[in-house]
Write a structure and sequence with these properties.
The complex is a heterodimer. Chain A is of the alpha/beta class. Chain A contains twelve helices and 14 strands. In chain A, the strands form three sheets. Chain A has a seven-stranded mixed sheet with strand order 3-2-4-5-7-6-12, with helices on both faces. In chain A, strands 9-11-10-13-14 form a five-stranded mixed sheet, with helices on both faces. The chains are: A alpha/beta, B alpha/beta. The structure holds thiamine diphosphate. The site of thiamine diphosphate has 15 residues of chain B, from β4.
């Protein structure tokens, strides 16, 4: 075990992959000498050289497209979007190309690439540098979407994404980068115990299920502590990957507790919370529900700048606590 | 060239008989570009193609029967009937695929070329694109990257004068696509795209440059599309005289046969035989493809993923 941060645990996963697999390379804006806008790739250029760590121009479309082209002829690109907001400049290579080629060409190619970057608010960067766009990508057949919540998971899930032959949109959260934890580093890619499509019960409980991902996992765990003092025994499910989504774990948790709160940073309408709710409502888990489902998410506005407005927009621990109290009342 | 033309004419006939589903974009009149470029490539070289890609695919060695099967939406088609006209790929022969997105393959070709560099291969990637694609952002991002990284890629613009109804002269500022190479530090060459030998020459030069590690090139091959943009086109944006003039006076196949007879490369009988061979090949391809099985919808579940789709769905 090593005491380290989410950002460093991620960097360590890159290191393991770059050292072990010649086909792995990284490309993105300022990932080399600058070390990445959030310092995630710090030191990698010195260690692996400019052939493996490629500084690109500010050209999101070609960054994503080069990953597609390199992946279909046998490389394992990991490319960075400096802020995940900029991924919208690269929608064609991701949505029309990466997601489609395996299917559209009748299985003649697969597209093993990772496109990654930080999302989320809380840094005062306002509307164009604070979004949570995961639902856009989870909606597209052909993509996989990974949203790690802990330092151990960001390490393990990055390696699991490299083992996967399909294109992965890997969304980190900027506020998690500095969170410290004890992490067990894997010495080889295949040593990762994580698998895409497997949720994890982070805390067991019998009264209410909170299904969360990314930064909402630590907030849900905090909420669970508060609720425990009130005698409410909360179970926290961390989705970890949004596509594929582990519907089995969601349903069995709800069957156990009879109550469901979904928690996400993205705005509520047409979102992952809706998918989680539908996966319960459309199954036999529905019969176990003792109260209507509650969904927690951002206010339905672009992210505001002022700290007070930003905090009011993003769901905080208290909002999850309130939602759990509401489902417990029924 | 004869096979490509016969293929496209065969498709027109199938369409008229109501046997083709969806749309298609014919390259009749542009055969010298695909043939001149692909003929100049070596074993192992890669191409990416466009919505008007039947010619590229055939010129790079695809089996016409499997192409026809794809167009006729058969399981035996290159993409199991999932791709259709705009998406035929023949990866085992180095055709990384046609693309329904204008300029969609420009960045992919850059990535495939980067991979050749990384893998220490001396293969070259050719990216075919239209004049219309040269006005997409992807064109500029890809050429810039190819320029700074000396990627072994040849960007081949088939300037057939129009992007649907939009004349190149009205769409591309400066009306000089080859000239755009200079902005990215690449040689940009404009060639007569109806002269197969000129196209071949330009490609050989660009490929040698790429193989020598000197980087990317841009070729603008000026040609003309005789047919409408796709199945539905009333040709309101150009005159009948313009089409006739290109067809009667600058046809790439006529030009090549003239060259062959004048320089005694091929006899008239040999030319007639080659043309007949093209027609026969396509006739057999259609007949063979017709017998193929229909694709099975039950095979679609999970087919978007190479592994572990894991989506039991929420229903
Ligand atoms: C991104 C995108 N925009 C628009 C279209 C619709 N479209 C298909 S082909 C075409 C014209 C393309 O012109 P050009 O690149 O010159 O190729 P050509 O058809 O002449 O071969 C258009 C507008 C598309 N498929 N993709």
């Amino acid at each position: 075990m090593t005491r380290t941060t989410y950002a460093k645990a991620l960097a360590e996963a890159f290191r393991v992959a770059l050292a072990e697999d010649e086909r792995v390379f990284m490309a993105g804006e300022d990932i080399g000498i600058y070390g990445g806008a959030f310092g995630v790739t710090d030191g990698l250029l010195d260690e692996f050289g400019p052939k493996r760590i490629l500084d690109t121009p500010i050209s999101e479309e070609v960054i994503a497209g080069l990953a597609v082209g390199a992946a279909i002829v046998g490389q394992r690109p990991i490319v960075e979007m400096q802020f995940s907001d900029f991924i919208v400049n690269a929608m064609d290579p991701i949505v029309n190309q990466a997601a489609k080629l395996h299917f559209m060409y009748g299985g003649q190619v697969s597209v093993p690439m990772i496109i990654r970057g930080p999302g989320g608010g809380g840094t005062g960067a306002a509307a164009q540098h604070s979004q949570s766009l995961e639902a856009w990508f989870a909606h597209v057949p052909g993509l996989k979407v990974v949203t790690p919540a802990t330092a151990q998971d960001v390490h393990d899930l990055l390696l699991a994404s490299l083992l996967d032959p399909d294109p992965v949109v890997f969304l980190e959260h900027k506020l998690l980068y500095k969170v410290e934890e004890d992490v067990e580093f894997r010495s080889s890619i295949a040593d990762t115990p994580a698998q895409l499509g497997q949720a994890l019960v982070r805390r067991e409980g019998g009264d209410c299920s909170i299904v969360a991902y990314s930064i909402m996992v630590p907030r849900a765990l905090e909420a669970a502590e508060v609720l425990a003092e009130e005698g409410i025994d909360v179970e926290v499910v961390d989705l970890r990957t949004l596509r594929p989504m582990d519907t089995t774990t969601i349903r069995s948790s709800v069957k156990k507790t009879g109550r469901l709160v979904t928690a996400q940073e993205a705005p509520v309408p047409v979102s992952i919370g809706a998918e989680v709710a539908a996966c319960v409502a459309g199954s036999d888990a529905l019969d176990y529900l003792l109260a209507p489902i509650q969904r927690v998410g951002s206010l339905d506005v672009p992210m505001p700048y002022a700290k007070t407005l930003e905090t009011a927009t993003i769901p905080q621990t208290g909002d999850i606590v309130d939602a759990a109290r509401r489902v417990m009342k029924d | 060239m004869w096979t490509i033309r016969a293929f496209e004419q065969g498709l027109e006939e199938l369409f008229q008989r109501g046997l083709l589903h969806g749309t298609m974009h014919l390259s009749i009149g542009q055969e010298a570009v695909a043939t001149g470029v692909c003929g100049a490539l070596a074993e192992g070289d890669l191409i990416t193609s466009t919505h008007r890609g039947h010619g590229h695919c055939l010129a790079h060695g695809a089996d016409p029967e499997r192409m026809m099967a794809e167009l006729l939406a058969k399981e035996s088609g290159y993409c199991k009937g999932r791709g259709g006209s705009m998406h035929i790929a023949d990866v085992s022969r180095g055709n990384l695929g046609a693309n329904g997105i204008v300029a969609g393959s420009m960045t992919i070709a850059a990535g495939a070329a980067l991979a050749q560099q990384q893998q220490g291969s001396d293969a070259v990637v050719v990216c075919f694109f239209g004049d219309g694609a040269a006005n997409e952002g992807a064109f500029h991002e890809a050429l810039n990257l190819a320029g700074i990284w000396d990627l072994p890629v040849i960007y081949v613009c088939e300037n057939n004068q129009y992007g649907m109804s939009m004349a190149t002269a009205r769409a591309a500022a400066g009306n000089d696509i080859a000239g755009r190479g200079a902005a990215y530090g690449l040689p940009g060459t404009k060639v007569n795209g109806n002269d197969i030998l000129a196209v071949r020459e330009a490609t050989l030069e660009a490929a040698a440059r790429a193989r020598a590690g000197e980087g990317a090139s841009l070729i603008e091959a000026v040609t003309y599309r005789y047919r409408g943009h796709s199945k539905s086109d009333r040709n309101l944006y150009r005159t009948r005289e313009e089409i006739t003039e290109w067809r009667d006076e600058r046809d790439p196949i006529d030009a090549f046969t003239r060259y062959c007879t004048e320089h005694e490369v091929l006899s008239e009988q040999e030319i007639t035989a080659a043309s007949q061979r093209g027609k026969d090949t396509i006739k057999e391809a259609v007949a063979g493809a017709m017998t193929g099985a229909e694709p099975d919808p039950t095979e679609l579940a999970g087919a978007a993923y190479a592994a572990n789709p894991g989506m039991e769905g929420a229903a």
